[in-house]
Amino acid sequence: MAVKFLRVNMTEKRIVAEDVPEEYRFLGGRGLTSIMINAEVPPKCDPLGPENKLIFAPGLLSGTPLVNTSRISIGAKSPLTGTIKESNAGGTAAADLGHLGITAVIVEGQAPEGELCLLRINKQGEAQLLAAQDYKGMKTYELTKNMRSRFGEKNSVLCIGPAGEYQLRSASIQTTDVDGRPCRAAGRGGLGAVMGAKGLKAFVVEQGGKSADAIVNPEAFKEAARAVAKAIKAHPMSGSMMPALGTAGLVAPVNAMGAFPSYNARKGILDDWEKISGEAMAEIIQKRGGKTAHVGCAQCIIHCSNEFVDEQGKYVTSSLEYETIWAMGGMTGVADLDTIARLDFLCDDIGVDTMNTGVAVAVALDSGYRQFGDGAAVIEMVEEIARGTAFGRILGNGPVAVGKYFNNPRVPVVKGQSIAAYDPRAMQGNGVTYATCPMGADHTAGNVVGEYLEQKLDPLKAEGQVEASRNLQIGVAAVDCTGMCFMAAVALVSGEGGEAFLKAINAKLGSQLGPEDIPTLGIRVLKAERKFNKRAGFTEADDRLPQFFYQEPLPPHNTIFSVSDADIDRTLAF
Amino acid sequence: MAVELSVRLYGTLRERFPSYCHSEGQRVVLPDNATVEDLLGALGIARSDVLVVSTNGRILKADDTIRSGDGVNIFQSILGG
Ligand code: SF4
Q: Among B58, B59, B78, whose Cβ lies nearest the Cβ of A241?
């Protein structure tokens, strides 16, 4: 069976299946969403209007038996940044779409205001738009429960909460993990608002489809897949660190390097960071009978996820991750994992990005709205987003909206999107990535932290940062096409793992790609993204960090961001 | 004169020292002018784990000298999250 696109027109309530055109044949994930958006979406359109398209694309390898290929890319023009956007999430939906031979689901048009629909695809691949008025205002945990009791447990759900319905700029699209909880997020860029504007409350895919695109060379694929799994198990990060601590293992080294933006990026070390470290988290979870080394996504052999429980052993949230611990803990000065876990749950349930929301809260605290470290106040603030109060809507629109409201220029964003858990003054290369990434400030697009920890580069000096950021951005743009999880990809960039990964891709597609074709693909994707942004009106002047990073020294190193504008501008000037 | 250190361990390193207590750290005594390499040797930790040693917010290289009174942390490398 040939692979197909499903075009879902929300204006006309019409679903059309199309064969994948030749030019998209070897694309998946981010490559597909970005190249398609650049080709089909008018760059100056209203991101919340009918001309925007919301594209769901599993990776090229999603749905094959290859381990850790569970990422789904979701793309659109972002209402948060005004740029092109791809946000990817784990869970189970990518594999399900892969099993159905669906390369992309493209949601177009717009339902009449106030009308809500849900899209369901069964395991025969039949798609239907159904009325979803009954689920209006429903939070994601309850909604997911409803979907699974209506359609059966063996369904994956992608959905929005109240924030998406309000079309707030931090709204996420939440998706279900292997336990059926909506705790995996395509958090960044406000794509939940695009889904809300289309009038799509949920997208439900049945598991167990049997019409996957054929693997061209199954024997070679099997062999390569075994070698990929072996490399992932053998790598110290994917093989031992991630199952032990998950991404929260970064709290300690980044604080030790003085690069953990704290108290709205006023300091590079959080006073009580030991209380919210990955080590502390794992200890608490184990003592209370929660789960570490939890499987979050389909076919995962790394198990970076966790289930955080309260003192009674009751489920609070899954999975508590580094970026959330930072945004909700470091930036707000709340060094308490119970509060952070509660906030993580609230964000998933309301359907907002934990990072953009934590930073928005931090800007409010920095403006004197409440005290840094007041966990109860932060919980109240985030709950206001669900209630849709005036302040809740400002907060849910992200750090820029909050900064404007309080007239506070200390807003750590690029192109409207919050930075991540690495201060650009103490990790200059991450600053280069924030400035130049076509998606706005981003933590996955080109994270240089490994270069610093492995002493390949001095994090405080300008030298070498542009090259490091560029190489990583190209590599990640390519990997983001495959559906491979980042935690696994670290074991597959070179050596035997790299070779095996390439073999698996070639065996799947019947292609003859060599190592040099990987950066070529990454550059092709980045070029399309930058082209879209240029046509949307973005210029080099937008590739800058906020002023205070160039002026306010960050303790303990007391450095400022020192990469020159000219150097920034040559980062992605292909 | 010897260099006395209290070393804090992170990642999965603690599992290798059953009596390790994090609030006190692991006590290590090294000869004068000892380097990061010597420290790891004294602890019996192989560098193949991509170990990262830091003090005062700086990442140290294998041949950097360690001074008495330095707060030393040992991590495992993570490439992002
Ligand atoms: S390592 Fe973590 S994010 Fe990656 S597939 Fe496994 S559970 Fe999901």
A: B78
